[in-house]
Amino acid sequence: QAQLVQSGGEVKKPGASVKVSCKASGYTFSYYGINWVRQAPGQGLEWMGWYNVYNGHTNYAQGLQDRLIMTTDTSTSTAYMELRSLRSDDTAVYYCARADKGYYYGVDVWGPGTTVTVSS
Amino acid sequence: DIQMTQSPSSLSASVGDRVTITCRASQGINTYLAWYQQKSGEVPKLLIYGASTLRSGVPSRFSGSGSGTDFTLTISSLQPEDVATYYCQKYDFAPFTFGPGTKVDVE
């Protein structure tokens, strides 16, 4: 069945960058897109952005578009999320999550999450 | 951007009670709304999409309704395993914003 496997946790200093990977399996990667969603400790879900692998279009949450870069490698069915100029309030669990190319059916498959800690 | 709100922010009910959570969009989003359940320490799980379509495998005690700006998630008979935080998400157009969540506990 469809599965997303994410890279391991990271500890970064303020001002650094982090890159999280998300490898898809069990489905045709190019027929779907990947959302990036984060959750700060004890907080709710924050949608960060969407990479539609089918047509290459991207959408970013306002406030993150200057620091967030989403890419994919279709040859390995892997999505990447890079967040630059990290701040302490970027400390969160980062999820990749699948939606169909038309975003008709919500976000149906989630990765396990990658914990990113930003601390000096 | 369209803002999403949920009410209440938390609730506590007895096993067997009917529970209703409301999600409101600041502008109309047709039926492009999904509901997710997140249990403590777990990954969010899709329950409902298209405002009212139950995802396969989700217990039938969960139901969704609404269109435009006002939506509800109903648990017809609350079970102990339903203790979780529930989020709505709009997906008509980006940004695909989540609501702030409603925490459901069992008394």
Number of contiguous helices of chain B: 0
Number of beta strands of chain A: 11
Uncertain segments of chain B of ≥5 residues (pLDDT<50)?
none
Biggest pleated sheet of chain A: 7 strands, mixed
| Mean pLDDT value of chain B | 97
Oligomer state equals heterodimer
Main beta sheet strand tally, sense and closure of chain B: 6 strands, mixed
Strand content of chain B: over 45%
Shape, per Cα inertia axes of chain A: globular
Using a beta-carbon cutoff below 8 angstroms, give the protein chain pair with the largest interface and the number of residues from each chain: A-B, 23 and 25 residues
Give a structural overview.
Chain A is built from no helices and 11 strands. With 120 residues, chain A is mostly beta strands. In chain A, the strands form 2 sheets. In chain A, strands 2, 4, 5, 6, 9, 10 and 11 form a 7-stranded mixed β-sheet that branches. In chain A, a hairpin with a 6-residue loop joins β9 (92-100) and β10 (107-110). Chain A is globular. In chain B, the strands form 2 sheets. In chain B, strands 2-10-9-4-5-6 form a 6-stranded mixed β-sheet, with no helix packed on it. In chain B, strands 1-3-8-7 form a 4-stranded antiparallel β-sheet, with no helix packed on it. The N and C termini of chain B lie far apart (37 Å).
